[in-house]
Each structure stands twice: as structure tokens, then as C-alpha cells.
Amino acid sequence: MAPKVAIYTRISRDDEGEGLGVARQREDCERLADLRGWHVAKIYEDNDVSAFKRNVRRPEFELLLSDLADGLIDGVVAYDLDRLARQPKDLERLIDLYDERKQRVFATVTNDVNLGTADGRTMARVMVAFANKSSHDASRRIQRKHLELAQQGKSHGGPTPYGWNKDGTVDVEAAQHIRAAQRQVLAGVRIGTIRTDWHERGLGHPRTGTKRVAHHHVEHMLTNPRLCGYRTYRGEILLDDDGQPVIGDWEPINTVEEWEAVCAAVAERKRKDPGRMLARKYLLSGIARCGLCHAKIRGQNNRRWKPGSKASKFSYQCSVVNGGCGQVGRVGEPVDELIISLVLAEQRQRAATTALDPVEQWPNLSELAAVEADIAELTQAARDKRITVSTLLQLLPDLERRRDELKLERGRFNKERQHAESLSAGIGEDFRSLPIERQQALILHSLTAVLIHPAGRGKRKFDPSLIEPVWR
Question: For 285-300, what is each residue's pLDDT tens digit?
Fold first, then answer.
């Protein structure tokens, strides 16, 4: 009876996603199996998957080992040994299975290695060791090339990031979506809300095999240093010999101040609420408070409400579960309408009185410039042998620490200023069309809380005097 063998094919990179490389391997392996008189039971394919990177899991390779151990297949055919393994530990896992059952067959198109014999295993170990060294050497050369490209401000040559064309110019439409999303972040909108909106509108660049952009990919698109022209290397902003950021050879989308403001907003939100779900369903949830016990009031859905009915869709209720007295509740819609009208009127009035105010500049701008100049002067002095490297290393840390502190202050300042500008821009928009987080940010820009006082027993008409806004 002919042995039932599996064909394993793999290629590290398939930029086009057409699978032509693994298809060619499969044809050659099928021809070899036919010459040996073996029956091909299954084909395992890991396309666009590295066998050298330790943090990469090859699902089809793992399934192949599992099926081989369970006796579902009697052997393996591959184009070359390095398609199966480039790490010695992977080869040893395969050898262990052949140790358990000597009758298993093995063949490759490019050479004749028999894992069932001691000589064949020794040869396989040597070949994989050389393949591993070859991958190490290639990785080192590629890293050196990428560093050189980074130091010259050139792109890494991978897929074009969202927001740019292949020639480095800005994709105007994509850049508009990025800027709009950044304004939403500054106005208090969650990354998750932006991600959902982008998915519905088909924006961003989902990775191959996924239907939507991941949360961390959206965050990266909005905070990527590339947006303001900074070149990065291994996730860090690359500095030149003078300690200044290397500027890329592409057209920026943001100014440095705009980019720093968005990064500060995202970092501050993570610091304030690590891992906490910030989604809100009702406008005044967490803002409204009970007029009797002053506990926070949450919105509650009316289960009796149905489309077309005159009943209220939701209400604000002081709850004993949340530490309240449970004695105050109010139909939600008229409360929201009242607060929205009051806030928008107050903000329009405020915008009219502050329209002529000059734009405030960051007060420590001159100090940051002086610190950066001192760092550059010290570095140049060490380069010219006017001071020793030991002296440089004694003086530099304090200056670098102060520079980083000032840059952080500048980011916070720009974040606060642009946050206010984003809120001012929201006044002219249709309030109800804004995301709930932005609506709440507009409310909190004017109010610290909304007190809901008890209305007494029985059905009563809505009384605005029992809704007390607490102004900032």
C-alpha cells in the first residue's frame, strides 16, 4: 500500500498575495511524490509566513506535526528542508516524530535527506544550522540597510502608509480623514468610536485577511511621528548627530504642534483610565446628579418603549445600586434638550466675546530653544575635541531630561489649546450628529454637573426650573 504523504509549502514574503511561489513548490512536490509512488493525502501551506522569526507561529506547520504524530499521514514532502525549518528547535520536533516511527518517509525536491537514518539527521541538522546563519546574515544586512535609509530620511520601502501616495505626496482625501479623526480625539472622542466610523465608511488600510482596521492600527495612524515628518527606526524617533529629529523625504500632514497635541491627548487618556471602557450611551450619564443625595445619576433604557410609541425612550434615575437614594428620576429627552439649548447658547456667547483674543503662545518656547542649543553646542564641542567625552556625559543627562520635560509640557499646552479649538468648532455643527463623547465634552466645557431635583408624586408637566445646571 502506497504511503500517504503530506506536501508542505512555505514562502516568507508574498507582497502581491497571489500565492505563486507556494504554487510552484506544490507542483514540484506533487511530481516528486508521483515518481516515488506515494499518495498525496493533504497539502499544508504557510504563505507569507517566516520560519526564522521566533515570535511567528506557522499554523499549517503545527497542524502538519500534529497529523504526523496522530498517524493520519505517513511522511512529508517539501521543496527544500529550509521550507520546513530554519530554527533548529523546529527540526528537532520533526526528528522526534521520525524517531518514534522509523517507517515514516521523507523527501525534498532539491536534495536527498532521509530523516529516518542517523546520517540523514546529522546532515539535516547541518543544513538547518547553515540556513539559520544565512537568515541571521540577511537579517543583519536588512537592518543595516533600513538604518541607513532612516538616517537619510528615506522610507523603508514597504507598503505606502495610509495618508500618502507612493511618491511621498499627501493623499488629500485620506489626510482629511486623519485630520478630522485627530480633531475628534482632541474633542474627547474614543479611538474605538473613530474605528467603528472608519469601518462603516471603508477608510484605512485593513491588513490582508481582515475585514476592518484594528484598534491599535487606528491609534498608530493618528499618532505616527511620520505625520509631522519625523523619521522613525524600530519604533523610536531617529535623531541626527546634533540630537535633532531626522526629517523624512515625504510631505507631512501635521505640524509638530498638532501631532504633539494628539499624542498628549491619547497618552493622558490612557494614564487616567487604563483599561477602562469609556463608552457612554446617554448624554448626561455621569454628569447629572441627584438633587437630594448628590449621587451621580445614570441613564436607563425604558423597556416598555417601542418605535412609534409616545413613551419616553430612556430616563435618568438615581439608583440605590450606584450608592444613591433612589428617590429622584426624570424622563430623559426633555432634560437633554434643555441642557443642549442652554450650553449652546452660552458657548455661542462666549465665542463672540473671545473671537478677537490673540492666540496664546507656549510660554517656555525660548527656554526649550536654549536647552536644545546647549545640547547641540556640547555635542559639537566633544566632536571638535574641545571637551572630553567624559565631560560631555556628565553634562548631557540633565539637559536632555529638561528638554524632554519641556517637550512634554509643550505637548500638553498644544493639546489644551487645540482641545478648546475643537470644542469651539463643534458649536457650529449639528450637535446631535456628533459622537456621544464629543457631545459630552461640549457639555463639560460649560458645566461641571446638572442637578435634577425631585418633582413630587404623580404625573406632572416637565418643569425646567427643577433642572439646575452648575456652570463652570
Answer: 888 898 888 888 888 8
